[in-house]
Amino acid sequence: MADQDPRLSRMKAQVYKDSRDQDYFDKFHERARTTEPNWVYEAVRVVTVLWGLIAFRMRGYHSERVPSDGAVILAPNHASFMDHFFAGAFIRRRVRFMAKSQLFSKPMEWIFSPGGVFPVRRGAFDEDAFVTTYSILERRGALVMYCEGGRSRTGRVSDRARPGIGRIALQSGAPVVPIAIYGSVRVRNWKRLQFPKVTILYGEPMRWEQIDRPTREQQQEVADAILGEIKTLYGELEQYGPKGVAERVRAERRAAKPAGVA
């Protein structure tokens, strides 16, 4: 395992094995497959967006690239427990995501499940998580999924993607919007009373021809292509900085206006 950056607050050791039987999670999958998030989602959204805006001076650019309806996969880099909320903060749609099964215990499961989150058992072949994912996309939902799997422990975007997102993109045919979240790696430093500025940059949607049974190689190829776009967006934020990207976006919008429009 790569060493953690000493400038970052340390993350807890990862626990990949959940000793509970799969049957324990059936009720959470059933709810995610048959119902939409309720008022809990909106309550959590208000709190997390306010927290992001105030504590992390959160800003988002090109959120209009996310389709306003229909199935879509949002694919951000992953460095913070807040990334799910950062990715959905600047779009009107309710976004769903899978969370490690260890989080589904009382009282947090009373928030996660009504809020549209569903479990995945890491370290095991959890086909139920895929079935729930396809159910959400078939109902024209918006899903957050990470190419890298778990959170980055080094502070860097991974060099290789996990194939799962490639499988889902190919089998569902849903467009994928790559997203770069810049600054979230330092969100964990709130423990040191350090609050970084967080910037979210949305990329152009990517789409592949639907394949019922993609090979492992096809899944990996698509996953790597998505991660490549994320790294390009992230590199843009690194090169120009959040302020520079903001200026470029404003310039692009001015240039796109018809002549004579103020």
Oligomerization status of the protein chains: single chain
Question: What structural category arises from helix and sheet content?
Answer: alpha/beta
Distance between the amino and carboxyl termini: 54 Å
Report the helical percentage.
25-40%
Counted beta strands: 7
The 3D shape can be described as: globular
Describe the sheet with the most strands.
7 strands, mixed
Please give the count of helices. 7
Mean pLDDT value: 88
Task: Estimate the strand proportion.
Answer: 5-15%
What low-confidence regions span 5 or more consecutive residues with pLDDT below 50? none
Question: How are strands sequenced across the largest beta sheet?
Answer: 1-7-6-2-5-3-4
> How are helices and strands ordered from N to C?
HHEEHEHEHEHEEH
How are the SSEs ordered, and which strands pair?
Blueprint: H1 26-34, H2 39-55, E1 59-61, E2 72-76, H3 83-88, E3 95-100, H4 109-112, E4 117-120, H5 127-138, E5 142-144, H6 164-172, E6 176-182, E7 199-202, H7 216-256
Parallel strand pairs: 1-7, 2-5, 2-6, 3-4, 3-5
Antiparallel strand pairs: 6-7
